[in-house]
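Possible regression after last week's pipeline update?

I re-ran a chain I had predicted before the update to compare outputs. Posting the input and the new output here so someone can diff against the archived version. Not blocking, just want to make sure nothing changed silently.
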Amino acid sequence: RVRYTLEDGSRTDRDLLRLAFETAVEAGADRICFADTVGILEPDQVKDAVSFVRTCFPYIPLEVHLHDDRGLATANALAAMDAGAEWVSCSVNGLGERCGITDLVQLLANLHYRGTRPLRNPEGLQRLSRLVENFSGSPVDPRRPVTGKHAFHHTAHLHRKAIGMENLAYSWIEPSSLG
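New output (post-update):
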């Protein structure tokens, strides 16, 4: 199997983008991958770019590779999926060049929240994150969404009081549903 990734697709002229993917498909690529290599796109721009590629190549599986330089990789991945991308390049804890790429755990948590893909093993998200943290030697930021130590931790008196009455008062999702 061959996946062809167009490096820096986000800054590539549309005609050249189409030509590069056409050439790859004609040469036997089974999947094409649109890359936002420097993480400059916003969700609407990703949706537009993926829609363009999807229109040009409706029957070729499409992957996106989205860097997190602006902190938008997860939002961009959701927008790409909404526009027809079937695959998302991910890493655990967002590891990768510079600020990393789409975080698998964050993406899975958001797909679960949307009702798109239920989690089969919520506790596995936390275990996976810690395992990668230990092996990579790259600590998880305590404020990292989903897996950070403080992701569901509240210190403000008002927040703690409200959570005592309603567990979801200051949470976007039931913390236990993510392990």
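Follow-up from reviewer: compared with the archived run. The CA atoms of residues 77 and 88 lie 7 Å apart. Marking as no regression found.
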